[in-house]
């Protein structure tokens, strides 16, 4: 069973519209857990590769009403900045390939639709495009670092 970015987004949207607090989905090469229970917080997504020695013959789905653990407190954010967040669990890369220039640097001017980084998930390279024009004032993730769904990657001062 394959799960692409759009299917993952649809699952998250359906979870948000339902009374389900936790969803677990397993495939031949992945395990997906979605949990929600905190008002004002987006669903948490945890994705990892399943062990090769125990393949699952058919996907298993389970729902439970168990509350999830509270996430760590977020640092104070300036109200004049727009956050660029990770739309998926992935590995963050600042440049298109090792040794090449980064897509953006501190102080870079960016436009809507401009690629700001690559997120690698399940061996797929996904270019993350900016949804805002402005100046990059903070880059919060190191190159090659794993990121979580909803994690703030950069902050931009809108133009």
Order of helices and strands: HEEEEEEEEEEEE
Q: Quickly name the level 1 CATH class of the largest domain.
A: Mainly Beta
Major pleated sheet: 4 strands, antiparallel
The average pLDDT value, as a whole number, equals 76
Identify low-pLDDT runs: 41-74
What is the name of the CATH superfamily of the largest domain? RNA polymerase II/Efflux pump adaptor protein, barrel-sandwich hybrid domain
Radius of gyration: 17 Å
Strands in their spatial order, largest beta sheet: 3-2-1-4
Topology-level CATH name of the largest domain: OB fold (Dihydrolipoamide Acetyltransferase, E2P)
Number of distinct beta strands: 12
Q: Can you tell me the CATH architecture of the largest domain?
A: Beta Barrel
Number of separate helices: 1
Whole-number count of domains: 2
Task: Explain what this protein looks like in three dimensions.
The protein is mainly beta. The protein folds into two domains: 5-64, no CATH class; 82-158, OB fold (Dihydrolipoamide Acetyltransferase, E2P), CATH 2.40.50.100. Helix content is 8%, strand content 37%. It contains one helix and twelve strands. The strands form three sheets. The chain has a four-stranded antiparallel beta sheet with strand order 3-2-1-4, with no helix packed on it. It is globular and about 40 Å long. The model is unreliable at 41-74 (pLDDT under 50).
What's the helix and strand layout?
Layout: H1 5-17, E1 22-26, E2 31-35, E3 44-48, E4 60-64, E5 82-85, E6 90-93, E7 109-110, E8 115-121, E9 124-129, E10 134-139, E11 145-147, E12 152-158
Antiparallel strand pairs: 1-2, 1-4, 2-3, 5-12, 6-8, 6-11, 7-10, 8-9, 10-12
């Amino acid at each position: 069973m394959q799960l692409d970015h759009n299917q993952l987004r649809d699952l998250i949207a359906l979870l948000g519209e339902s009374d389900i607090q936790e969803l677990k989905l397993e495939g031949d090469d992945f395990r997906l857990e979605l949990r929600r229970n905190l008002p004002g917080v987006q669903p948490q997504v945890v994705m990892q590769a399943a062990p090769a020695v125990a393949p699952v013959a058919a996907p298993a789905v389970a729902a439970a009403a168990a509350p999830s653990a509270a996430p760590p407190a977020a640092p104070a954010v300036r109200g004049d900045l727009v956050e660029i967040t990770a739309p998926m669990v992935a590995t963050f890369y600042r440049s298109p390939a090792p040794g090449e220039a980064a897509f953006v640097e501190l102080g870079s001017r960016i436009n809507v639709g401009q690629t700001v980084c690559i997120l690698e998930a399940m061996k797929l390279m996904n270019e993350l495009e900016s949804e805002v024009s402005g100046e990059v004032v903070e880059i919060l993730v190191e190159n090659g670092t794993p990121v979580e769904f909803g994690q703030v990657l950069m902050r931009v001062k809108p133009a």
